[in-house]
Model the fold of this input.
Amino acid sequence: MTRRTQIMFLLAAVALAGCSKNNEGTVTPPMPDGPVAVQLSAGLHTLPAPKAPVVSGTSFTAAVAGWESASAANYASAAAWSTTAQITAGASAAVITLAQSQTYSQQSGVKTYMKAWYPAGTLGANGKVTFGGTADGTTDVLLAGEISGSATDSGVKTLTFNHPLTQLKFKVDADAAFGTATTITGISIHDAQLPAGIDLASDAVTYAGAANLTVPGIAAGQAITATATAAGDPVMMKPFTGNSIVLTVTTSDATYNNVTATIDDDTDFVPGKAYTITLHFSGAELQAQAKVTDWVDSGTGEGNIQ
Done:
């Protein structure tokens, strides 16, 4: 079963001066005399670094926003407040500071509904976030669903982040028949869709149109040897429908068009999973093998291409 990497935000408890009972015997906390601050701590497993998938020990800036309502929140409307928080990866929860401190509404019965996401991007008045700088596929996206609190309900709250994208990583190797003089010069993923933003009303990532994506970060002069070696940076994109992707692979000697890599563990590429595609060069042939790595702890896939 797929286990997605999750990241927790904990809303710290705020002490109340006292409480009273209503006519039915239930406890009704009184409204506090002054503003009640929104306080958060964060931690759990690993968090993504800017321009990378999941890297422990580094930091990133997440957006946090709140909508105030006496009923359900309308995330397609303007937020009551929006700010950011700098978060450092770690296994233990640690207090974080909002860039602009926030308080709960002082109106009786009004709750604050909150969501958080990364990258922060720009939040519009219609509840839609637009990103910038995601055109090369190296930006991770995280999205946490709704939590709520109020001046009289300020106990511990948990925001759970999920990875809505699929991650692809590439390796190259060759057998003795291929030789050692050839270098890898390019890998292109056909019909990739990169994240353009988030619609907070539907908790859905919005994507740019399908286009071929050149894998960035391939080192100049990288030799193809008997040892499988990473080629380029990990890239993250909309999960593909179906269990195969099509590539164009170029070397210093040749171009291999319409190379298909197939996974056999999933019928579709799955959000929150990382797939490593290993390109095997053998004489005039190129084979691609795919397996699940990093974001989950099980699952494999493979395929042969000529």
About this structure: The CA atoms of residues 2 and 77 lie 34 Å apart. The mean pLDDT is 78. The chain has two domains: 7-162, 166-194+209-293.
